[in-house]
Amino acid sequence: MTAHELRTQLREVRVPDEAVAQERTWAIIRAAHGSADRRETRPRWRATVSAVAALAVVAILAAAIGSAPRQAVARWVRDALGLTALPHARPTLGPLPTGGQLLVSAGGGVWLVTPRGGRRRLGPGDGATFSPHSLYVAVWRGHELAALDLRGRRQWSLTATASVSGAQWSPDGYRIAYVVGRSLMVVAGDGSGAHALAGSVERLAPAWEPGTGAVHRVAFLDARGAIELRDADSGALIWAAHTRARPEQLLWSADGRRLVVVSRRDVALYRNDGRRLASRAPAGGGVLAGGALAPGGRLALVSARAAPATSSLTLISATPAGLRRAPRAVLTAAERLVGISWSPNHRWLLAVGPSADQWLFVRATGAPRIIAVSGVAAAFGATGRARSAAAKPGGFPRVAGWQALNPRAAGS
Question: pLDDT tier at 411 (50, 70, 90 boundaries)?
């Protein structure tokens, strides 16, 4: 490869968080060549071919960084560190892989992203969640919980005694569980019959148990750090299980036979009677930053390491027999990923990267493919720099759901 060809390739690649990457590159170069430079006081005229090639690459890299600071750092640096080379990020959302629609919470507003990438602001909100059949959206802001249709028209609302968070629809759409202050509340899908189910709970989104017919059971985290499963109508305690680490997510399997509990330290699998089946720590160390469970038991996990700053997206199998198979890495990137969502057909994953102001669509089946979308903060009306938006709680666009279109909603 000629120097011109290498320079061209270097300028075609764009990397998230370029300034930090550039500093990391110079550190690698100094570490690799600094000690040799100190030892040599006279020029060596008989340099080996490999040494000349290495110096040529360093010179070209330095020129690329110095002359075009907004261009990407070398692809070979990523390869040397074992990182996935991300594609050139497209500046707009464009069509969503496999279609469907996204529900997004960003900067105090709630947005709907259409299959072709169009954006519609539904209204103000700190968070939101789809109804099971993609007909409505539950939105919360401050002390208020409201239900909107997909045009943003309010169907009903209620005012709570404290701040609302973590609302979740039951699988049949007839109930909504949500946290008010330190209490777990339940309301009917039409906004009637709001009542307290439990007091002294943690502000963690509850999780409805699927497949229980007319019975509505919901799992949540109490103030003691125990997971409880209760009948949402009678309040009866079904079971309680203590955990080894504080849960950050509760994820039911589609058949309701197992509950996945994601903490920063490990992922644990429970039966629907509360018995713990298995647990697993993140591969390669680090901490878990989110999970998503697809029908059939494919569990996607994001783990992050601080030094060097990398995130990994892996897949494992969560079956009734336990956590099976070795984790399969589908993405390793030099940026911080904070959340993942499955596509409606469960072939793609969407990972959120606020530190690079990007969304990453990652194909989880078939031939590997990554679609990177840049400028996400500005796309949803965030003001100022993307990093400023990412630093504020709820500032960077978060994906609250990726669901299939409902023809009834599309025609409304």
Answer: low
Residue type for 300, please? A
Q: What percent of the chain has pLDDT over 70?
A: 74
pTM equals 0.77
Rg (CA), the chain: 24
| Burial category of 338 from C-beta neighbours within 10 Å (exposed 0-12, middle 13-18, buried 19 and up) | middle
On whether the CB atoms of residues 330 and 46 are closer than 8 A, the answer is no
CA 113 to CA 380: how far, in whole Å?
10
The per-residue b/e assignment along 160-192, b for 16 or more CB within 10 angstroms, e otherwise, is beeebbbbbbbbeeebbbbbbeebbbbbebeee
Query: For residue 1, what pLDDT is reported?
Result: 53
**DSSP letter string, 255-287:** TSSEEEEEESS-EEEEETTS-EEEEEPPTTSSE
As a whole number of angstroms, the distance between CA 222 and CA 201 comes to: 4
The CA distance from 212 to 234, in Å, is 15
CB 25 within 8 A of CB 73: yes
- Residue labelled with tokens 């500093």: 23
CA nearest to 356, candidates 303, 400, 310, 312: 310
Q: How far apart are CA 333 and CA 389, in angstroms?
A: 21
Mean pLDDT of the chain: 80
Gap between the Cα atoms of 187 and 176, Å rounded: 5
Alpha helices in 40-169, H assignment, sequence order: 49-67, 75-81
Does residue 78 surpass a pLDDT of 60?
Answer: no
Q: Quick one: which of 30, 176, 6, 16 has its CA closest to 86?
A: 16
Beta bridge partners of 159: 144
Contact residues for 310 (Cβ-Cβ < 8 A; gap 6+):
83, 304, 332, 333, 334, 335
| Residue whose tokens read 């930053």 | 289
Q: CA-CA distance, 213 to 84, in Å (whole number)?
A: 44
Return phi, psi of residue 276, to 5°.
-80, 130
What's the half-sphere exposure (Cβ side, CA atoms, 13 Å) at 357? 21
